[in-house]
TrEMBL record:
Pfam families: Peptidase_M75. One of its GO terms (cellular component) is cell envelope. It comes from Leptospira brenneri. Its main location: other. Residues 59-349 form the Imelysin-like domain. InterPro entries: Imelysin-like, Imelysin_sf. It comes from the Bacteria. The keyword Cytoplasm does not apply. Gene3D superfamilies: M75 peptidase, HXXE motif (1.20.1420.20). The lineage of its organism: Bacteria, Pseudomonadati, Spirochaetota, Spirochaetia, Leptospirales. Keywords: Signal. It is found in: Cell envelope. This is Imelysin.
Length: 433
């Protein structure tokens, strides 16, 4: 039975059941339950089409992220192999880090959906996300290793999220000893972003890297650390790419497309990421005006972080992806009925960021207008505690009272939409204000 035949059959049964309910009103509850079951059956082909598109986007997105990090690693290898690298060469590596972030950030929408990014059962018992994008960072740990410790690639992996023996744990949390991933690389490239310093971190310069003194100097160790951390990130993204590759025998993607729980997991994952992580911890964490609470506080890349998180959801909403390969398929907009326009409006609101903080390569900066956030993100959030300009104050209000609530409204809309598919998304893991 094809989809058209299925729909005709469902409509016929629905009419029959409605007619019977008039004759036998005591059966109305049973009839309503049956109609709900039939509605779910009618939706099944659409869900299958969406999951197919979702898997294609995931594979292409992770493929692009892997490719971009390979390019970053190649630049890092050249840079860290020099005895006296230049400032221009350091800035070039920083720009490659920023460019590689754009593709990775779009993959974050795949989190919390029982997929390989944060399900250790699928990746040999090792959860990959804490090794890829965990934050906040224990800066003191990295400084201690660079200055006094021995550096090995496996040692950095083993130390990640371990105990902070140096007593420098952020917020006193002993499980925040982050030693690898995007933000460890970021810190190695930019260094700390001091309070009220409204530029990216400036404590690291080209003189902090060298091969001239063997493995003993702090600069030589920083070079080794940077290369190891980038190689580790590359290897983990390759794992994720391969997990979604339909040509790899036994890869996760075949299980994903055949599992009866995948659609439910995806809806729950998107809601949890929107309400708990992206629009929750990451955005609400800066309401106190602390620069250290920025998601990318060393590079001041936070506006791009939030913008491309929204783009990742926009990809799934439309069923499209534009990268090294273009995908046009079946999106959430084709499934969510009356909530579709509501969600799309909030995705658009979530992208009200002008991306203009790229001091290393100003050619990347967008031209800004007054309707979106043009201020530096750290300067904008600091207006909570200090006097800011009229533009900075207005931009903070856009962020606090338009963008952040819009992202959490996406989670609420998905909760409502899920019910029509017989899926219940509770508040666990969501920050719903």
């Amino acid at each position: 039975m094809n989809r058209k035949q299925t729909l005709i059959f469902v409509l016929f049964l629905g009419f029959t059941l409605q007619y019977c309910s008039i004759l036998m009103p005591e059966k109305e509850d049973n009839n309503n339950n049956m109609l709900a079951v039939l509605a779910l059956a009618a939706n099944a082909p659409s869900q299958t089409a969406f999951l197919e598109t979702y898997s294609q986007i995931a594979f292409q997105n992770y493929s692009d992220s892997y490719t971009d990090v390979v390019a970053l690693r190649q630049k890092v290898a050249t840079f860290t192999g020099k005895a006296s690298p230049t400032l221009a060469e350091l800035n070039e590596v920083k720009t490659y880090w920023r460019k590689a972030r754009r593709s990775y950030l779009q993959t974050e929408i795949f989190r919390f959906s029982q997929g390989p990014i944060d399900n250790p059962a699928l990746t040999g018992g090792v959860e990959l996300e804490p090794l890829v994008n965990a934050w906040p960072l224990d800066e003191g740990y990295i400084d201690t290793v660079v200055l006094t410790g021995a550096i090995t690639k496996q040692g950095l992996i083993d130390a990640n999220e371990g105990d902070c023996a140096t007593g420098t744990c952020p917020d006193g949390d002993p499980a925040k000893n982050i030693s690898v991933g995007w933000h460890a690389i970021e810190y190695l490239l930019w260094g700390a972003d001091a309070a009220n310093n409204f530029t990216p971190g400036t404590t690291v310069t080209q003189s902090n890297f060298t091969t001239a003194n063997g493995s003993g100097s702090a600069a030589a160790k920083r070079s080794a650390y940077l290369l190891y951390a980038t190689e580790i990130l590359e290897s983990h993204l390759l794992q994720l790419k391969n997990a979604w590759d339909p040509s790899v025998s036994g890869s996760y993607v075949s299980k994903f497309k055949s599992s009866s729980t995948s659609f439910e997991n995806v809806l729950r994952g998107i809601a949890r990421f929107s309400g708990g992580e992206w629009g929750g911890e990451r955005m609400t964490g800066v309401f106190g005006g602390e620069q250290e609470e920025e998601h990318s506080c060393f590079s001041d890349n936070t506006k791009a972080d939030f913008y491309y998180d929204a783009q990742g959801l926009n990809n799934l909403y439309n069923g499209t992806y534009s990268g090294s390969q273009t995908i046009n398929g079946y999106g959430l907009k084709n499934l969510l009925g009356g909530e579709s326009n509501y969600i799309k409006e909030r995705i658009d609101t979530a992208q009200l960021f002008c991306l203009n903080e790229f001091t290393e390569d100003v050619s990347l900066n967008q031209a800004c207008n007054s309707s979106i956030i043009s201020s530096r993100f750290d300067r904008m959030i600091a207006t909570v505690n200090i006097s800011g300009s009229a533009t900075e104050n207005a931009d903070y209000n856009i962020f606090r009272y338009q963008i952040q609530p819009a992202v959490q409204e996406i989670a609420k809309a998905l909760q409502r939409s899920a019910a029509s598919f017989g899926v219940s998304i509770g508040d666990d893991g969501l920050v719903l204000e």
